[in-house]
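fyi for ur records
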Amino acid sequence: MRVAVVGATGQVGTVMRDILRERAFPVEEIRFFASSRSAGSTLEWNGVAIEVEDAATADFAGLDIALTSSGATSSKVLAPRIAAAGVIVIDNSSAWRMDPDVPLVVSEVNAHTLRMIPKGIVANPNCTTMAAMPVLKPLHVAAGLRSITVSTYQSVSGAGRGGVDELSNQLEKSQGSEVRALAFDGSAFPLDSGVKFPATIAHNVIPIAGTIVDDGLLETNEEKKFRDESRKILEIPGLFVDVTCVRVPVFTGHSLAITASFDRPLSPEEATQILEAAAGVVVCEMPMPRFATGKDPSYVGRIRRAETVANGLSLFVSNDNLRKGAALNAVQIAEELLALR
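which gave:
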């Protein structure tokens, strides 16, 4: 296939390029695109230096698939223009996820929706949604999912390179003995909040990931995405979802504590057997972001009965938000499209 990577110089675009190589995706031709700031620079592909093109002015004709990660505002303009050139767009932003004419796809869960792509655009879910879907789908098939209550533990890389830099800089500042003493005796941590997060993230947990949405619910956009996207991907429009999204001082890897209610009883032992056979899932004793980083599956563990809901189970999930949470799933969608040709 003739492939475009849009946002190729960014955090997710870099991982997309790596995963295309790792999975030996059959690339006949590849082109890299980014903003005008990066246009003219070069990126290596199989020993060849390829010049980065300006996505805003480029001609995309002749390509088959575009893997795009350029932000929602940019995608609303760019994705239709690329699709109009006859290219299937696999978009990593939030711009198209809830459009009824755009499939929202997790490759292991609902690849069947790729048979109809009316606008020539396929949406990649949010990274926290992505981690949960391969775990929840087989349990739903087995027992009928009724509700989920979720607390997320989202790494700073979910806020882009700026989030990574912010945590790194704050950790560097906190190495001084004076700062350690102040933090240890319980007084306010003497670091200013940064650009990406509303409070200091180093040595802290912030109970707001994303920005508050003006919808009367006082929820964040991350929480809204998780609820709306879960209903669409799992094809359960009436699913009850309560979610609190939290930012934690971890560089890579999102985690979720999930309590789920089902139509029928589902024992931890049966759930474990189901998940051990599920695509894109690995059952382990103690899922953690440090364990999941650099790996593809959603790791799930701590599977146990939940007493607060009918037919309830609680479990814990960790996943690399830059791989399966973004780049890997986009490439897997491209593989599904290739198989449908």
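DSSP finds ten helices and 13 strands in the chain. thats all i got for now
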